[in-house]
Amino acid sequence: MRKRIAIFASGKGSNAENIIKYFKNNSLAEVVLVISNALNANVLLRAKHLDTQAVVITKEDLYHSETALQILKKEKIDWIILAGFLWIFPKTILDQYPNKVINIHPALLPKYGGKGMYGMYIHKAVVENREKETGITIHYVNEKYDEGKIIFQAKAEISATDTPESIAAKIHLLEQQHFPKVIEKLIITNESSPSLGGG
Ligand code: GRF
Questions:
Q1: Which of 61, 99, 175, 180 lies 20 to 30 Å from 166 when distance is taken between CA atoms?
Q2: Atom number, ligand 1, closest to the C-alpha of residue 43
Q3: pLDDT (tens digit, 9 = 90+) per residue, 131-181?
């Protein structure tokens, strides 16, 4: 049976689209659901375009009731991927999905993580601090922003002429290149030794 992936995303959705496409004809897994907390999120249009079911949830659904968890259970979701989802993930769901909730962060954690550190805020800070490199981090999700165990990182060099915008483009390429493959590898590892919880 193909593993069933749900993607939580509330932004542009370029990662969500890339992951959906990657697993379309993949015998291992498929993306069956996109969950967003933003009614106008572009990711919802992308999901529709790709014939992938999408639902919008509220804070109430996620934190103060079991609605979100029930949606995941009803869809028999095995893996949860966060791709541009900015809310803290609730313990109720994490407890049901140990080592099965994965996030991508557009920086080399533990640097440039935490509340308020997302998107261009990160790339601007990286330029202001004259960093020589930045990158992406794929990590397990826990109840704190960007603090779960790191699974994978890829680096990009920063040159003197780089701007926050050009860094964003480099990060975007790294995300497109690595995120689906890292998810696939995690699922494969977990299939062969489930006790490891995939990592
Ligand atoms: C990505 O940069 C990802 O690293 C971060 O949020 C952004 C989402 O971009 N967590 P998109 O919505 O997938 O285009």
A1: 180
A2: 12
A3: 999 999 999 999 999 999 999 999 999 999 999 999 999 999 999 999 999
Q: What are phi and psi of 95, to 5 degrees?
A: -65, -30
Q: Name the 3-class secondary structure at 26.
A: coil
Spell out the residues 6+ positions from residue 189 whose beta carbon is closer than 8 angstroms to its own: 196, 198, 199
Output the residue whose Cα is nearest ligand 1's atom 9.
84
10 Å CB burial of residue 82 (0-12, 13-18, 19+) is: buried
Query: What percentage of the chain reaches a pLDDT higher than 90?
Result: 94
pTM (predicted TM-score): 0.95
For ligand 1, whether the C-beta of 167 sits within 6 Å is: no
Q: Where are the domains of the chain?
A: 3-197
84 Cβ inside 6 Å of ligand 1: yes
Cα(102) to ligand 1 centroid in Å equals 13
CA proximity to 125, closest of 108, 140, 146: 108
Q: Which CATH class is domain 3-197?
A: alpha beta
**59 pLDDT above the threshold of 80:** yes
Which residues, 6 or more positions from 176, have their beta carbon under 8 angstroms from its beta carbon? Answer: 14, 15, 18
